[in-house]
Amino acid sequence: MSVIKQYLRGIPASAFPDYGIGRRGASLQRLLVIVLFWPVFLLVQLINGAGLLLDYVLFPDFRRVTVREPLFVVGVPRSGTTFLHRLLALDQRFTTTALWELLFAPSITQRYFWTAIASLDARIGKPAGRLLLWLERRLLGGLDGVHKTGLRDPEEDYLGLIPVWGCFLMVLVVPSPSLWRLTFLDRDGSPAEKRRLMAAYRRFVQRHLYFHGQDKQLLSKNPSFTPWMQTLADAFPDARFIGCLRNPDASVPSQINSILIGARLFEGRDTTTYWRDGFMAMLDYYYRHLLEVLDTLPESRQGLSVMEVLADRPAEVVAQLYVRFGWTLDLAFRERLAEQDRKAKGYRSGHHYDPQSLGVSPEELNAVFGWVYDRFGYSRPEA
């Protein structure tokens, strides 16, 4: 783990304890998962890579698409980013990425191919569609309490950066220093690395707009883009940013528990200390960097969403953000928001965990996030 520590400048060495990389006696579960995961993953990436190359032959004009006023929903993980993202996605001005596009169709070529297949399937009664829906629920249904998603649901578009090693989620299977550095990109990334990632991301967005409509605005939701905010603001000078935050009492243990669910699948042993300490340091940076960058942007380009307010009055929060950005809410969008407002009253999270089992103590929360409690008027946790 010492190699990773060298990259995470300014973070205490104790924040990243030994993970056991290279340790003998890896669990059978981890070995089986890797044997099953890597062949499928590499095959999918090979197919995706071929599709991306075909785009330059079949749809070369995608490189001329203008990316206009994208909206980035960023912030501290587990702070309402998904909820806000799906509220905003109800506005027809936006286009956002679906999970199936990110995983299996990042190219224009693949999207047209799979759309044609779906059309043919619909003509014969959707047998493949029903089978896919069944498989989706079997594979993804267990995650509903943490992050409910389906192949057709809006999802985080940093998954589209997997081919260029720009998706932090890959750290679950490859604990690489370069992946950890993504969580401090604005601070630690080299100019060359930032240019490479932004060039790849711009091409990704251009492909998406080419397929879904060049008159649309991109709606992107990525908490993992929080440490990229300044880089994104420089690359897209007319972009808007909505930063989401929440009481650390809720957001910090919730995020640590969420990552542990994936880590236990791939690792097969207890790595709670590694993820807790790493994410405590990372989330401290997220809170600080989010507010610092928002403060540097003009008011017309940035807004803040506090989870406790969003959960109680979602339509009001969205309306205020639109006023700030100089946008109007059309009648259809207002009606959809009103319906979501009613549903929000009865929502109860299905994500349950015990902070004590994660080792997230009130003392540590106070020590690391005390300034957040004080700035936003949250009650400090008691031992």
Automatic annotation (TrEMBL):
Residue ranges of the TM segments: 31-54
Entry keyword Transmembrane helix: yes
Pfam families listed in its UniProt record: Sulfotransfer_3
Record-linked InterPro entries: P-loop_NTPase, Stf3_sulfotransferase
Superkingdom as given in the UniProt entry: Bacteria
Keyword tags: Membrane, Transferase, Transmembrane, Transmembrane helix
GO molecular function annotations of the record: transferase activity
Protein name: Sulfotransferase
